[in-house]
Description:
Elements: H1 2-18, E1 29-35, H2 42-60, H3 70-74, E2 78-79, E3 82-90, H4 95-109, E4 113-116, H5 120-132, E5 136-138, E6 156-157, H6 163-177, E7 182-187, H7 190-204, E8 215-217, H8 225-233, E9 238-242, H9 248-257, H10 260-263, E10 265-266, H11 273-279, E11 288-291, H12 301-314, H13 322-338, H14 345-352, E12 356-359, E13 362-366, E14 373-374, E15 377-382, E16 393-399, H15 412-427
Parallel strand pairs: 1-3, 1-4, 4-5, 5-6, 7-8, 7-9, 9-10
Antiparallel strand pairs: 2-3, 11-15, 12-13, 13-14, 15-16
Helix pairs in contact: 2-12, 2-13, 4-5, 6-7, 9-11, 13-14
Amino acid sequence: MLRKLALLSLLVIVVLAFGISTVSAQDTLRIGLLVDESGPLTFYGYELEYGFKLGLLYAAGIDPTEYDNLDAALAEVNFGGRPVEVLVRDNGSDPETGVSQARELIESEGVEILVGAPSSGVTVALQQIALDYDVILFAAPGASPAITGANFNVNTFRVCRNTNQDFLAMAAYAQENLGTNMVILAADYEFGRSSAEAAVAIYSSIGFTFPVETIYAPLETTDFTNYIQQVLDSGADVLLPIWAGDTSVALYQQFDELGVRENMAVLGAFNSNDIVASSATEANLGDVGWIVYHYTLPQTEANDWLVEKHQAVYSDYPDLFTECGFATGQALAAAVEATAGDTQPSAMIPALEGLQFEGPKGTYYIRPGDHQALVPMYIVELTTIDAPEYEFYNLLQEVGALEITVPCAAPEDRCAMNEEFMASLESGS
C-alpha cells in the first residue's frame, strides 16, 4: 500500500513539474468568452459572442438552422475528439472585473482557453492571466497595437486586425486627398492611447504634421464641446478621431453641431451599423474612410455562410466585429484539431504560428513572430444613411492582407520570424 502511495505521489509531482496532460479526449473543452454586454462597448460584445459561436459551428460543419435553437447546435460541436462548451462572462469593459472572471473561469469552471475582449484595456490585463495560468488567450476584438506589440507574450494570439492596419490601409488615400496638418482626438484608455501613438508614427512618415499633441477624452464622455473646441483651435486641416462604442453617436453628432466639417476633413473608421444609422446625417454622405468589416463587402464562401446563418439565428445582419469573432472561432478550432484536443500552450502555439485559413474576409495569416493576423481591410464611401438592410457603402478599395506592412514591436528575434514567414509567402514555399 505504501509503495502504491509513493508511486502515486511521484506521478503527481511529475505532472505538476512537466505539465503532462491528464485530460481525456472525451473531456469537455471549456472556453471562456469575455465580453462587454452592459458597458460602453456593448455593441461589440454581442458582435463578438454571435460571431464566435457561429465560427465554431462553421468550423465543425454544423448548420444551426437544422436545430431547434443555437444551444442545441453548439452541443454538437466537437474538436480534437472533445465536446466544446462556451462560458460567456460580461465584464462591462472593466479590467478588474475581467481579470476576476478569468481567474474564476479557470480555477472553478475548468476553462482551458480564453477569448476576449472588446476593451483593449481588459485584453491587456487578460494577457497576464494567460501567462500566470499558462493558457492560450485569443485577443478579440480589442485593437490596441500593444497587445501584439509592446505587451507581446507567447500565450496571446490575435486573429483580428489592430489599428496599425487601419491607418496603413488608409495612408495612401489620406496622402493623396487630404491636407498635411492633422489633429487626433482619442479615447483616454489603452485602445485610444496606443492607437494614437501608432497613428502619429504612421502619418508622420508620409508627411503629416501635428500642430498640437493628441487630445484625449474619457470614453464615457457625452458632452464633447470642450474637446471639439480644442480640435477647432488646433489649426489642423484633418481630424482623426480614435473612438469606440456607443458614445461615438454623441461624438459625431457634435462634430456636425459645432461645425467641425466646415473647418477640416474628418478621417476615420466607419462603425457598427446601428451607430452609423444613429449618428450619420446628410452632411456625411460622400465621406470616405476605412472599415474593418461590413457584411456586404467580402465575396467569400465563409462570409456567405455567416450572413445567411446570422440572419436565420439572430434575425439581423453580421456587424463590425462579428467577422473577428467568427475567424477567431475558426482559428481556435483548427488548432485544437491539429493538437488532437491538447490545449496546452506547448501544443497550441506551434499549431497557431503561421496558420493560414479561409475566413469571412478571405485568407487570414497568423504571423509566427508576434502572433498578429494579417487580414484584408476596406476603404469605403458612405452613400446612404437610411438603407433598410444597412447597405450604406460603396467599396472603393479592398486592401489585401499582404499589402499592409504591419510593424512588429515584439522582441527582435521574434520579429525576425515574421520576416522569414513573409519571405516564404513571397517565394511560395
